[in-house]
Design goal:
This protein is of the alpha/beta class. 39% of the residues lie in helices and 13% in strands. Strands 2-1-5-6-10-9 form a six-stranded mixed β-sheet. The chain is globular, with a radius of gyration of 21 Å.
Length: 346
């Protein structure tokens, strides 16, 4: 009989009445595509409801779930997608007795994840008190009003507070689930899942780029060409004037357009891309740190260490040791500097 220490990490998705089918499918799609080098699944994904059977959605069809809330007691990670029928959870900030009884099955130490307004459920249960969290930008003000003890950040795509993670609206759930795969198993696995799902492995910026604003003037150009140009030259010194030249813009105009499109300054975006390049090199090669630093565009090992530590919460050496020698029981780093048990060991 397989012991708990050696079975696949179990993700249980809690399907609530009024759920959005798209968001319900995100954990199954992202976690379900994560494989080890031998092609074996790294996660087991199951769905439960407040009771077995029919669960209405916000679409013109319902879903049928086999499992009741008792399944939550077996979860290593619980995911709560959004619902449009949260009732007193949304309107009064309190759980219904049925929902409270369901959440009581969750074991201490279980990782908790919300997608979009699924964060209301975690907040109403007290899981987000004193923690940084996010939700859909249009609900952020109400969310903060209902749950003043939560540190609401309306500008990000997701938050990671170690064992509690939240995402912004709808597709940001993809970003969060990919982040979790990356945190558990490294960039190579997450990138493979992203390729198979035909989505970017990491989106720049936050929700600011999606908040409604006046329609851009027709003559505005994208900065796609400049970004593609940069990705081929991350190992080289890059000047803002060179980026602006790729789009035939002034530096001032390019900087403004770039921030409008990505939510970041060109410099912030380049550093993020260089960190991703460094991660890939640390995971896949045994190159000396000085060589990794040069290839990623940081120049020196000291600069590499500074930026990797700031982005990932661990040194390049520790990151390489974790993801090139990950084994059952390994503690994997998260961007906030905490450590969590590798998902594959649960």
């Amino acid at each position: 009989m397989e012991t708990r220490a050696h079975r696949v990490h179990r993700v249980v998705v809690l399907a609530l009445a009024g759920l959005l089918p798209f968001e319900l499918g995100i954990p199954h799609r992202i976690f379900g595509r994560a494989k080890d080098p031998a092609g074996q699944p790294l996660y087991e994904i199951l769905t439960c409801g407040l009771h077995p059977g029919r669960v209405p959605t916000d679409a013109d069809f319902d879903i049928h779930v086999e499992h009741g809330p008792e399944l939550l007691a077996t979860a290593d990670t619980v995911v709560v997608p959004a619902s449009y029928e949260l009732g007193p959870v949304h309107d009064e900030g309190r759980l219904t007795p049925e929902l409270a009884a369901a959440l009581a099955h969750i074991r201490p130490g279980t990782r908790l994840v919300s997608i979009c307004t699924g964060g209301y459920v975690l907040a109403a249960a007290g899981y987000l008190d004193g923690r940084r969290a996010t939700t859909h930008w249009s609900a952020a003000g109400h969310f903060q009003q209902m749950f003043p003890a939560v540190l609401v950040d309306p500008g990000v795509l997701y938050t990671d507070d170690g064992d509690v993670l939240t995402s912004a609206g709808v597709a940001a759930g993809i970003d969060l689930c990919l982040h979790i795969v990356r945190r558990d198993h490294g960039a190579a696995v997450a990138n493979d899942v992203a390729r198979r799902t035909v989505v970017p492995p990491h989106r720049e910026g936050g929700q600011a780029q999606f908040i409604e604003r006046p329609v851009p003037q027709p003559q505005r150009s994208a900065t796609t060409a400049a970004r593609a140009w940069v990705l081929d030259r991350l190992h080289e010194p890059l000047r803002l004037t060179d980026l602006a030249r790729q789009e035939a813009m002034s530096v001032r105009t390019f900087t403004r357009r770039f921030r409008e499109e990505s939510g970041l300054s060109p410099g912030e975006w380049i550093v993020g891309q260089r960190v991703e390049r460094a991660r890939a090199l640390l995971e896949r090669t045994d190159l000396p740190m000085e060589h990794v630093a040069r290839e990623a565009g940081f120049g020196t090992a000291q600069s590499l260490r500074k930026h990797v530590q700031a982005a990932l919460g661990v040194s390049p050496t520790a990151y390489r040791r974790t993801f090139r020698e990950a084994a059952p029981g390994t503690m994997l780093p998260s961007p906030d500097g905490t450590s969590v048990a590798a998902g594959s060991v649960h």
